[in-house]
Amino acid sequence: MAAPQPLKLTKRAVDSLHVSSGDTVVWDRDLPGFGVRVYASGRKVWCVQVRGPSGKPRRRTLGRFGEVTPEKARRDAVIAIDRIKRGLSPDPPLEAPEPTVLDLAERYMEFHVRVNCKPRTVASFESLVRVHIVPGLGHIRLSELERSHISGLHHRLRMTPFQANLVVKVLSGMFRLAEAWEMIPPGRDLCRSVRPYREKPRERFLSSDEYGRLGDALDKAEMDGSVYLPAIHAIRLLLLTGCRKDEIRTLKWDDIDRSSGMMHLRDGKTGLRHVPLAPAVLAVLNEIPRIDGNPWVIAGNGPEDHLGTGSLDYHWQKIRSLAKLEKVRLHDLRHSYASRALALGEGLPMIGELLGHRKVETTA
User: Which domains are present in the chain?
Assistant: First the structure.
């Protein structure tokens, strides 16, 4: 993205600044080195950046927009820039504002979640932070945060217990890292005493009749062309393998080893695992044409793309409607696979291995 053009940093100008993701600095038109850093969360911080006598850039924050006026920020910037250019520390000392839950949330997302988590987890956490955590707690200083704030937010989300519990889990992860970053004193995880809500089981298993209707719907959609063919192939593979949706969407032809009779899933939720190529699975794979230059088994519309998750969900709704299946998610095909395997005499450890579960309790 091109750098923003310098502006006269008045209150009206800074009020109008927004970014859709990450952060960026908008520099002042009249005072070189004076700017405001704008975050996607809406937070804006005055700053200076100039080179000292050594030629090395030095940076300093001057406080938050809204707490420090443009006039004061500009006066402080003139002093700081002058002293930095003379090789001195900015004077007077500029104390960093006391961190808030918003500060912690931004740091947690930038330095932990976006670095260590998969894209879908990043998107989920960003949504929780943006929709629930920042509006409910973002303005509170970490030193003033109490258990009642956490339990109050949890209570306000009681009508969606899964969401409520997940918000508390994310907050708990934030506090653990806040300790490591010395933003809060040790042992200040305020989530420990929040009792999670009972979550309704979300498992749904297909009956034999529903399996039949689903198979008929897939055949009909393939014949009349009413559903995107790669989506039909993906659904059949989900039915026959018990794999996760993203494991099938991102399956590459190189992951299929016909000589050993295995699919090697290198980006599974629990790491590398191997899924047997049953005859029915091979039959589906044999029907899928390979597209020159496209490495994906389930190809998308682009010449080098795989099918998007939104597109697969859309076509699943069409198939589900054709099969007259009520309240069945794609993930329920995975549950149904495990249920049928258990009914056929497979033990929980074997089923867990097929599904990529590290713990038997996850399969049970």
Answer: 11-85 (3.30.160.390), 101-180 (1.10.150), 208-363 (1.10.443.10)
Instruction: Say which range, 99-108, 263-272, 280-289, has the weakest mean pLDDT.
Output: 263-272
Whether the CB-CB separation of 364 and 352 falls below 8 Å is answered with no
CA distance 279 to 117: 35
Half-sphere exposure of 220 (CA within 13 A, CB side): 12
Cβ burial, residue 259 (10 Å; 0-12/13-18/19+)? exposed
Structure-block tokens of residue 50: 């100039």
Tokens, residue 113: 């979640």
Q: Which two tokens stand for residue 232?
A: 């039909």
Q: Output the average pLDDT for the chain.
A: 85
| Cα dihedral 141, 105, 202, 308 in deg (nearest 10) | 160
Question: How far is it, in rounded angstroms, from Cα 181 to Cα 221?
Answer: 55
Decide: helix, strand or coil at residue 6. Answer: coil
Phi, psi of 45, rounded to the nearest 5 degrees: -130, 130
Q: pLDDT digit string (tens) for 107-159?
A: 999 999 999 888 878 988 999 999 999 999 999 999 999 999 999 999 999 99
Long-range (24+ apart) CB contacts under 8 A made by 59-64 are 60/84, 60/90, 60/94, 61/37, 61/94, 61/96, 62/94, 63/94, 63/97, 64/97
φ/ψ of 116, rounded to 5, equals -110, -15
d(CA 241, CA 6): 56
Helix axes 309-323 and 330-343, enclosed angle (nearest 10): 60
CA–CA distance, 213 with 325 (Å, rounded to integer): 8
Note if the pTM is more than 0.70.
Answer: no
